[in-house]
Amino acid sequence: MDAIREKNKKDIYILGIETSCDDTCASVVKNGSVILSNVVSSQNEIHKKYGGVVPEIASRKHIEVIDIVINEALERSGINLDKIDAVSVTNRPGLIGSLLVGVGAAKAISYSKNIPLVAVNHLKAHIYSNILKNPDIKGGFIGLVVSGGHSSLYFVDSDWNIKEIGHTVDDAAGEAYDKIARYLGLGYPGGPIIDRLSKRGDPYYIDFPKPMMNSGDFNFSFSGLKTSLIYRTKKDEKLTARKNIPSLAASFQKSIVDVLTEKTIKAASKFGVKNILISGGVAANSKLREEFLRKGRENNIKIFIPPLYLCMDNAAMVACLGYYRYLEGRFDDLEVDVYSRSDI
Amino acid sequence: MNILSVESSTGRLSVAVNQNEKLLSETSDHNSMKHMVNIMGLLGQALSRAKLTIKDIDVFGVNVGPGDFTGTRIGVSVVKILSWLEGKPAFGIDSLDIFALGISYRNISFITRSLKKNIPVLVMPCLDVRKSEVYFAFYNVTSEVNDEDKYLAKIGTGGMHYFISKAGENFLVRNCDLEDLLNGLTANGVLKIPGCGSGYRNPEILIGGNCFINYGKMLSNIARQNKIFNLDKKTTYPRARHLNICAYFNAVRKVKAKNLVPVYVREFVPFGG
Lengths: 344, 273
Ligand SMILES: [Zn+2]
Hints:
By secondary structure, chain A is α/β, with parallel strands linked by helices. Chain A is built from 12 helices and 10 strands. Helix content of chain B is 33%, strand content 30%. The complex binds zinc ion.
């Protein structure tokens, strides 16, 4: 990849578009590493009252603002659409009604401006949120993508082939946070709320199970943990007393963080790599960051975590992945479809 | 004036290019699950058959619904961005308007015969909007219009032309209540549409639209009982060529293009309320 980068002396501008879930995002990135604009139109306030993303509402909102968001990203970047070299868009995995708004827009741009179209995998793009900030990272690392919709582990070899080595068999980590926060009446999204409360709590208050810690593979499961918390709190009402909520939250969070960090470090040692790249909304979790950095030091493994604004869904990571696809000349035609599931 | 419209609100995707009222090309595909895959190909083909490029288009049109949510959004998303990038207006046309044109074109000789005998003619596109409900409206077909700004479109053949104007608001009704409602609206042989003047005496009303797919029997029954109603069983899909006509007359009447968003029959209630 470095060789291809060397050959290309001209500045490359990629327009990224991301609408796979509830955020409408557009971004212009120069040479795969300089973010010229990164616009995120969040629907959080709308979905908040339902305690989670409502797909039908998400799709309706995307289509209202898609042109405004793209225009805003272009204007803030100072780059005219005529100077854009390619348009990169998320086409999988995600909510179909949301994905098709971004992909429809990207196709129209590609057609109207006669520039190449790149359709990318959202999870792969999350991994590239780290490459965006560290373009010198070499292939040969473990990637962990944790968010409200996904918890997946990847092995990226020295030739940048990305292989999924594990995923959640039920709820995603962020989903477990949301469900527990809703159950405890704490609000939405659950991750930041539980993270904040946990800071005042005792993580050893309750010894929750650490699901699939020793499953022998790299899959995750968080549904049982949620069930266990609900079961324990129903049996013993004092656990949900106001003064105990921070410790309950901290114990729950400890369980999730332990499983994620342990299994990811195990994967690194099994595949013999010294770098771990973490991304996705849950990578913004302060306890997860802290634990990863600590365990990384202990095991002599370097941990990469993007800044908070790149952990969340964004189009800069989509543009970054699009940039590397552009350098390789790997484009998609205008017939490209949208898919609810991942297929890396 | 060159017009390009995308019709993607049902299983039949079509793209048409017009020069004013004249159809230059229309491409279509009947594979209901593949709109995202086929839309740009059909659009490119329609343009090349019309020997035009996207830069030659002056006005865009798209069906904004009611219709299939996924299909409608694909069309709206593509046309919204094309209109923005090309700097040309895009008109969102609703399904009932497009059907009103489709029904009128198909039955132009019936319309001519009736109007010659001074019988008022109305077309009534009727949509199956699921949940056992139908959605419809009336459109008056006339040789003249009083209000030059209000008509939807002007259609014509062989020197004759007719104006199509919407009469009243849209109706949303349970399919089992449709017959009673229509009989009530046409009591004593006079069609009285709420908020629409004194009514139409002994009119011919042409029912068409996709409600024939699931409610054909019911509509046949209505027409058998009440002779005011006539059936067009064939116009069951909206077509891009009729969208083009609507979009063209929007431009002719200098209608201001609005932010394109799909329209829905019902308010969306998460988790069924
Ligand atoms: Zn994500």
